[in-house]
Amino acid sequence: MMVVAALVSWFLVGLFITFSKRYGWGQPIRQEGPQSHLKKEGTPTAGGIPFVVALLLVWLALLLSGHGGGRSETLLVLTGLGMGLIGLADDLLKIRWRKVGGKKELLAREKFPLQLLVGLAFAIFAAPLAPHVWAHGWGLYGDTALYTLVMVGAVNAFNFTDGLDSLLGGVSIIVLLPLLGVSVVSVLLVGVLLGFLWFNAHPARVFMGDMGSHAIGGIVAGAYILHADVWLLPIAAIIPVVAVLSVVLQVAYFRRTGGRRLFRMSPIQHHFEELGWPETHVTLRFWLVTALGTSIVWGILR
């Protein structure tokens, strides 16, 4: 399954890059971001579209053959697709803005209610299915609220982790490793990310975009809730947790101090770039930290 998913993703992402170059679907680069990223202006973006399509195609084929998994796996796919569509809207606005102007992206106040709606829908169906390895004792309504918040938080955390070549793809693959024996969709997501990373390796020929990061966040969070335990997710996904916390702390500190910054730049990966770390060093070291966190989870689940 993983090999087929990787090959389908590799083909579709390569095809997407060809069309992106032909029609100018390039990534606009923030001028206030790391100066080393300015040379990436125009690199094809929204590479999450083809690998999400690849995941759906392979999963549908498995489902028709009776190997697509049960209700939990269907819920994972639908949640990933729901979150991914929110990200897709953001990607399309960015592409359109670069070509003809207009609205540049979805605002946080526009994204959040949609994410909350998808997260709540997931939580309602997930609460009766989750294994509760560590008893929460909060009842069905408490677990539903918890899973909704975790889902929305995870989607934003994984989205903030994107921004360096191969960073989010590699982190996500490592985080999913403990679940490969119990979740078909996790296997497929690792496969399509491997196909994507062929083109996203530094220097990236395509960027992931919001559809990819949103879909990944939804599937990873859902897989941990349904097949492991919700409290294990922040241990394995320590880098996304730190990334989103760095943004929250930066904004809070900036407002409280009247313009001073806690980090040179946020999310945290850009802080290390500003300290002089090469992009590839930041990526590899963040992978290593993720591997340590995931190994702890693996030990707990054994």
Shape: globular
**Could you list the spans in which at least 5 consecutive residues all have pLDDT below 50?**
none
Mean pLDDT, nearest integer? 90
How many strand elements? 0
Radius of gyration: 19 Å
Q: Quote the beta fraction.
A: under 5%
- Name the helicity range: 55-70%
Structural class of the secondary elements? mainly alpha
SSE order, one letter for each helix or strand = HHHHHHHHHHHH
Architecture overview:
With 302 residues, the chain is mostly helical. The two termini are 24 Å apart. The mean pLDDT is 90. It has helices at 2-23, 48-64, 71-100, 108-126, 139-161, 167-176, 184-200, 209-227, 233-236, 238-256, 268-274, 279-301. The protein is 70% helix and 0% strand. α2 packs antiparallel against α3 (71-100) and α2 crosses α8 (209-227). It is built from twelve helices and no strands.
Features:
mainly alpha; single chain; 302 residues
What's this model, at a glance?
This protein is mainly α.
Could you outline the blueprint of secondary structure elements for this entry?
Elements: H1 2-23, H2 48-64, H3 71-100, H4 108-126, H5 139-161, H6 167-176, H7 184-200, H8 209-227, H9 233-236, H10 238-256, H11 268-274, H12 279-301
Helix pairs in contact: 1-2, 1-7, 2-3, 2-7, 2-8, 3-4, 3-8, 4-5, 5-8, 5-10, 6-7, 6-8, 6-12
